[in-house]
Amino acid sequence: MVVTQLRPTNTWGTTFVVPSAFNNTADSTPHLIVTSDQGVTFNSTLQIGTGTNSPYSVSHLVYDLKTQYLNSSKHFSVTLIQPGHISELTPVSSFSACYLLPEKTSISKALVIAPTLNVSQVYVGKDQISSEVEWKTVDSQPYSWAMIDLPSGEHRVIWHPSTKIGVYVKDGENWSEAISITTEPALQGCLLDRARYSVMDQSGTWAEMVGHCQQENGELLSINNEGILRELSQSLSNPSKQEEVWVGLRRRLLNGEWYWLNKQPMNITKWFQGQPGSSEDKFCASMSLSSDNNENFRWMSRSCCHVLKPVCYKHNVYFPLAAPT
């Protein structure tokens, strides 16, 4: 007897891709367990009804691989039964953009499922897959699958920059899901945390807050264009009270010229009327956060020793595509 825990219903899907490669076992043809709490019809032909003694229908199907695509208007789950191993298949709705593969040295291949139009953009680590990889279409559906050789080493990542994919790994004769890292695609890799603007809780002098933003994987805010102002209005708008915060704007000691820390030109200015002042002790700049649109995001010159909270621009955080050297 083999016992396995069924997936929660909120992880079920309506579409599954079941590549014919799952049939390549040495000892036996794999079986599928299809689970649903409703009567379902797959591909308009295969019907499974609900059981009379249970709210679930569990059916064992000896899969002859005449179809690799299960689709229904009802939600269901699919479990792959192999000799000595049970694994859940991933519905298309739960595909991810980036996967981490187990570190086991016995795993040398991965099975990747991707939209047919996007198969050439699959990456293994930092490298795009070879054009010689053979992709096989899934019946008449818009998906294809391929077996990909994995590089040796412990750190292996498969990802796609523009669409979600499915990834399985083969250990011996058995298949299992790869580990999903991120669900949403990103052009530069596996995005763990998106860039954002944040008013930090800690207060300090201008120089101290430059360092604090760097410690938080960011930099003191520089405002070089109207696009940044629009992003600020979405993320920092409607403060509960008026607040003054540090930004990455500073005046040069020699000529009094104002400059941004990120070294980009000052394409726009948002000084309060009468600002910046000509005072010789105000070489840093702050910004107003206010519910008054006439004052919101306006700048003023300040002594760099003044104590304020900073607005930090936190950079995108990516999962490393290669092992640290």
UniProtKB/TrEMBL annotation:
Domain C-type lectin positions: 192-313
InterPro entries: C-type_lectin-like, C-type_lectin-like/link_sf, C-type_lectin/snaclec_domain, CTDL_fold, IgGFc-bd_N
Matches recorded under PROSITE patterns: C_TYPE_LECTIN_2 (PS50041)
Coiled coil: none
Record protein name field: C-type lectin domain-containing protein
PANTHER family noted in UniProt: MANNOSE, PHOSPHOLIPASE, LECTIN RECEPTOR RELATED
Domain of life: Eukaryota
Pfam families reported for this sequence: IgGFc_binding, Lectin_C
